[in-house]
Amino acid sequence: MEALKSGSDVLFVLLGGIMVLAMHAGFAFLELGTVRKKNQVNALVKILTDFAVSTIAYFFIGYTIAYGVSFFSSAEVLSAKNGYDLVKFFFLLTFAAAIPAIVSGGIAERARFNPQLAATFALVGLVYPFYEGIVWNG
What are the boundaries of each domain within the chain? Predict the structure, then answer.
């Protein structure tokens, strides 16, 4: 019975993470509606690159700052509890990556690409995890 409960917990968090990930498509299309036609491809590339940079920043720096946990462990440790910790990381990553996507929509066609990526890295790698750790990790 405990395995079923643990498995259903993992499924619930995974579905929540997938729904938050789907929000990124909404942010992208919202941003596409605010830019000129000639900049639509650039806006999509920027959103995708923002997500990639957010993933790298949160994986290597952010999650460790927020929770004091590192992923440089064995697969046996990471897959304990039906992979709940990995699914929880995915769920938290999607929220962390949503922040620069929201900011990106507000500064569309007004900011250069590389400084925005640097700001994304700093925001997701340092600023957001600090407050996330205070709120969710006690």
Answer: 2-136
User: Which tens digit of pLDDT belongs to each residue from 47-75?
Assistant: 999 999 999 999 999 999 998 877 777 66
DSSP state of 123: I
* pTM, entire model: 0.87
Q: How far apart are CA 86 and CA 79, in angstroms?
A: 7
CA distance linking residue 129 with residue 92, whole number of Å:
10
Other CB atoms within a 10 A radius of the CB of residue 63 amount to 23
CA dist 28 and 45 (Å) reads: 10
Neighbours of 52 (CB within 10 A): 13
pLDDT tens digits, residue range 101-128?
Answer: 999 989 988 999 999 999 999 999 999 9
Cβ-proximal residues to 99 (8 Å cutoff; 6+ apart), any chain: 123, 124, 128
Q: State which H helix or E strand residue 16 sits in.
A: helix 2-34
